[in-house]
Design goal:
The structure holds two protein chains of two kinds. By secondary structure, chain A is α+β, with helices and mostly antiparallel strands. Chain A is built from eight helices and 22 strands. Chain A is about 20% helix and about 35% strand. A six-stranded mixed β-sheet of chain A has the order 7-8-9-3-10-11, sandwiched between helices. In chain A, a hairpin with a 5-residue loop joins β18 (about 330-335) and β19. The longest helix of chain A is centred in the middle third of the chain and has 18 residues, at about 200-215. In chain B, α4 runs antiparallel to α5 (about 100-105). The chains are: A alpha+beta, B mainly alpha.
């Protein structure tokens, strides 16, 4: 098999690119997996629409999105459980799907941790972990690999147990050890914490991130939980309707969402209608003195998160507190503006405003706010 | 859920309404009556224990038992070897026409064993379709389908669908994530099948093999047509030819003993190793199918050969016998055929009605009686399934002669035997129908102020009705095909389609067996088709 080169008889002729030394100071990191133009239909449903994604060694990428956004389809395409309708997947530069080639899952060197763990119920923990080590012929070497993998996940004492004798968190770690034991190029995790209860989930998340980092394996991790994505991911990719909306560090996607969908999905958002004027953006809460590249008169939406909105009790004000949500460290308020728009605002926990109280509302002027025009971020 | 409910009930005893006690008493009475024949049989054997011991000491008895065990082993092994690859091909690969193949491959289940025994022996006989077809090629003598080889062939081809169906349903239930996990860990499709799929299938294959082994042990039709002296045939001859009642009773108890041993063996095989892991609904949506590639042709040929042997050959022979009978001017005795048809329908219809009436209180009581009592009630009602029909028929014969001679060889006693034989099936269907109701639905009706009886009438029964009706259809189907009890207990001159086929086939009147056999298959195919495709269609479409 000449699987390492692009197919000679493939209709698309790709020029063989010599590795160019780019004039960048930091070294070029070869991506472990590259997806280009990945598309998949299930009947009339377009599950994935020309997705581009690359993951470098040791990096954890969280795929985040609502159910049905294509994140699990992406994982199954990379694992080789389904074939793409269009597009290409390469692992370490070798095409595993696309260009008329399809490498079966067992030949891709890609590990998977399943949502329900999928431990083999008839095999002990040690034999589950050893299952993928069949190419290690020497028994002692194989045993050493099993011991190493179990030590990595902190389960050394449980090698002789059957899966049904383990707790959910332990099963999770066995699944991880089993996937990591053959030293895959890439690890895929499909909502790995959704089968654990809330308390366990918080404990296991940190552990799993530490294990993945210790193993220095490139990982793609699927979740619908924003908090989990931020906690686990070096980068977060947000999918919507089979398309990639944005990819970047958690800070980048949170502070500079590329679209209204991303901002909305990351939660606790309020939007204020505004108009571009010569000095900035005019809103119901006053002029935002920030430059905007759009022509004067354009309608925009300003993203106002609760911490960007200031409240002050003011008997003469026409905005009203509708409801207070006590959140422990702070109070969150839903405030109805005179125009009828509802907006959320946070105050320190010692500031308590009664429901129905008139309040003065202002935007914090300490940093420019993100604006959207027709759903896309401006500037 | 059940455990939690039970624990809660134990903690705070709920007073039980008098009507519930009435229901429980009725259920217990029904189970006791259904167990009477077996008790009576044991009593008779114990009374004549010297005679019984003498029967057991006879060398023929040992040979009969060995012959039967050998047949059971051969048929079970063949059925498993045939069915497991077929099940895998039709569920886990990209075999063209998987759905159609699984339907066609399961069809031999509808054909009673004595019908297929008759058709195979006729087809390979000197004047059969195969003999006539091969004569121009210079093949004058075909191997005869009789004795051990004949029974082995006929019963293997008749019973492999049991393993096929249990293995297929296990393959569909098996979590696809397990095979996906194996593939992602670097194992190919073949290694995955051997190391992950097959161990997961073991309990189901054991369950299917159990059905095949017990079917072979219980079968009277095929071994009697093919003149193979297995236990059930010997019991029949002992009773009818030698009029040796204690001997027949003793041999019947030997069959019960073998049944218990087989059940124990299956428990042993199935309990080692864990249960199959059920699939998560989402993962099952897009299972990973194994591409057959260049094996596709071989797989198709294997399926086609099985269908040819198990279905096409007997089918062609049936048509051939009918055509030849008509061509020779042997007029089909229409009056006699219609009479047999009517008798079959009446007996099976009464059996279905009586069995469902008897099964409902048992299933309902087993359900509303949490803890040990209910479970034991359900389990006891299943012992009828462990008894071969010839034994039950014999026990009812003794009971009739000894206790109510007026009823001997009357329709009510035959229907009673059917109820004893088919109660387990009906109770099973009813329990399954009740179990499918969502747990909260009856409790919410109770909370709305209805009594348990009203809830059962207005909520439970309407919702469970399709399952109960399916149970009735199954009893009808089984009763139409039933042979030994009908032969032993039917009123004098009471011919059914089953007895017509059997007597013509065993008396060498091959052509005259064809018309009642065809009528029997047509009558049996109606409830079969409804059971296979009709009653739970919506439900099944839901979980695909």
């Amino acid at each position: 098999m000449t699987a390492d080169r692009p197919g000679e008889d493939a209709p698309v002729v790709e020029p063989v690119v010599e590795p160019v030394v780019e004039p960048v100071v930091e070294p070029v990191v070869e991506p472990v997996v590259v997806c280009t133009g990945l598309t998949k239909h299930y009947g009339p449903v377009r599950a994935l629409d020309s997705l581009d994604l690359a993951v470098v060694a040791g990096e954890i990428v969280a795929l985040l999105g609502p159910s049905g956004c294509g994140k699990t389809t992406t994982l199954r395409l990379i694992a080789g459980f389904v074939a793409p309708d269009a597009g290409r997947i390469t692992v370490h530069g070798r095409t595993v799907a696309g260009d008329g080639r399809w490498v079966p899952p067992e030949a891709r060197n890609v590990g998977v941790v399943f949502q329900d763990f999928a431990l083999f119920p008839h095999l002990t923990v040690a034999r589950n972990v050893a299952y993928g080590l069949h190419r290690v012929r020497d028994r002692a070497a194989r045993q050493a690999e099993v011991t190493r993998a179990l030590a990595l996940v902190g389960l050394s004492g449980l090698a002789g147990r059957l899966p049904n004798e383990l707790s959910g968190g332990q099963q999770q770690r066995v699944a991880l050890a089993r996937a990591l034991a053959p030293r895959p190029a890439l690890l895929l995790l499909d909502e790995p914490f959704s089968n654990l209860d809330a308390r366990m989930r918080h404990l296991v998340r940190d552990e799993v991130r530490d294990i993945l980092k210790a193993a220095a394996v490139a990982s793609i991790f699927v979740t619908h939980d924003q908090e989990e994505a931020f906690l686990m991911g070096d980068r977060v990719a947000i999918l919507n309707g089979g398309r990639l909306e944005q990819i970047g560090t958690p800070e980048a996607v949170f502070h500079a969402p590329a679209s209204r969908f991303v901002a909305d999905f990351l939660g606790h958002t309020g939007f204020l209608d505004g108009t571009v004027v010569p000095g900035g953006i005019a809103t119901e809460l006053g002029l935002l003195p920030q430059p905007c590249p759009l022509p004067v008169g354009t309608a925009v939406q300003v993203l106002a998160r609760p911490d960007d909105v200031r409240l002050a009790a003011d008997g003469g004000a026409s905005a009203r507190v509708e409801r207070r949500y006590f959140q422990g460290m702070h109070n969150l308020y839903r405030v109805r503006l005179p125009s009828g728009v509802a907006i959320k605002a946070a105050t320190p926990h010692e500031v308590v405003l009664a429901d129905g109280a008139p309040v003065r509302v202002a935007l914090a002027g300490d940093h420019p706010l993100v604006c959207f025009c027709e759903g896309r971020a401006v500037g | 859920m059940g455990a939690i409910t039970a624990a809660r009930r134990r903690a705070v005893p709920v007073p039980v309404a008098p009507r519930t006690w009435l229901l429980r008493a009725a259920a217990a009475a029904i189970v006791v009556v259904a167990l009477l024949p077996l008790g009576y049989l044991a009593l008779r054997a114990a009374q004549g224990s010297d005679a019984a011991l003498a029967v057991l000491r006879r060398p023929q008895t040992a040979w009969t038992v060995l012959r039967t065990l050998a047949l059971m082993a051969a048929v079970t092994a063949t059925a498993v070897a045939l069915a497991v690859p077929l099940a895998w091909l039709t569920t886990s690969t990209d075999l063209p026409g998987r759905r159609a193949w699984s339907v066609v491959l399961a069809l031999p289940l509808v054909v009673p064993s004595y019908v297929s025994a008759y058709l195979y022996s006729a087809a390979l006989g000197p004047r059969g379709s195969l003999g006539v077809a091969l004569a121009p090629l210079g093949i004058e003598r075909l191997p005869r389908v009789v004795g051990f080889v004949g029974a082995w062939l006929v019963l293997s081809l008749a019973t492999y669908p049991y393993v096929l169906l249990t293995a297929q349903s296990a393959l569909r239930r098996l979590d696809p994530a397990l095979t996906e996990a194996s593939r992602s860990l670097g194992r190919g499709p073949w290694a995955t099948f051997l190391r992950v799929t097959l161990p997961g299938l073991r309990p189901s294959i054991a369950a299917g093999a159990l059905l095949v082994a017990l079917y072979t042990l219980r079968d009277f039709g095929a071994v009697s047509v093919l003149r193979f002296d297995a236990l059930s045939q010997v019991i029949y001859l002992t009773l009818r030819a030698s009029l040796d009642r204690p001997g027949a009773a003793t041999l019947s108890l030997v069959v019960v003993g073998i049944t218990v041993a087989v059940l124990g063996l299956e428990r042993l095989v199935a309990s080692r190793g864990p249960r199959a892991v059920a699939a998560t609904a989402r993962a099952a949506a897009v299972p990973l199918r194994v591409p057959l590639g260049r094996w596709r042709v071989a797989a198709l040929l294997g399926c086609a050969a099985t269908v040819l042997l198990a279905l096409a050959l007997p089918g062609i022979e049936l048509g051939f016998e009918l055509a030849r009978g008509l061509a020779r001017g042997q007029v089909i005795d229409g009056g006699r055929l219609l009479g047999a048809l009517r008798n079959s329908a009446v007996a099976a219809g009464l059996a279905a009605a009586a069995t469902v009436l008897a099964a409902l209180p048992v299933a309902a009581a087993a359900r509303s009686w949490p803890g040990g009592a209910g479970r034991w009630l359900g389990r006891l009602s299943f012992t009828g399934l462990a008894l071969p029909p010839i034994t039950v028929a014999l026990a009812v014969v003794f009971l009739g002669l000894g206790v109510v001679p007026a009823l001997y060889q009357t329709l009510p006693l035959l229907v009673f035997a059917y109820v004893v034989l088919f109660l387990p099936e009906a109770v099973g269907y009813d329990e399954a129908a009740f179990a499918q109701l969502s747990p909260g639905i009856e409790e919410s009706a109770r909370v709305l102020g209805r009594s348990p009886a009203a809830v059962f009438r207005t909520i439970t029964l309407p919702l469970a009705a399709p399952g109960v009706a399916a149970g009735a259809a199954l009893v009808f189907l089984t009763a139409v095909k039933e042979l030994p009890a009908t032969l032993l207990l039917g009123p004098y001159g009471f011919h059914t389609l089953a007895t017509e086929v059997w007597s013509a086939a065993t008396e060498g009147r091959q052509a005259q067996a064809a018309a009642p056999a065809l009528a029997l298959l047509i009558v049996a195919s109606v409830p079969s088709a409804w059971l296979a495709f009709g009653w739970d269609r919506g439900r099944r479409r839901g979980d695909r």
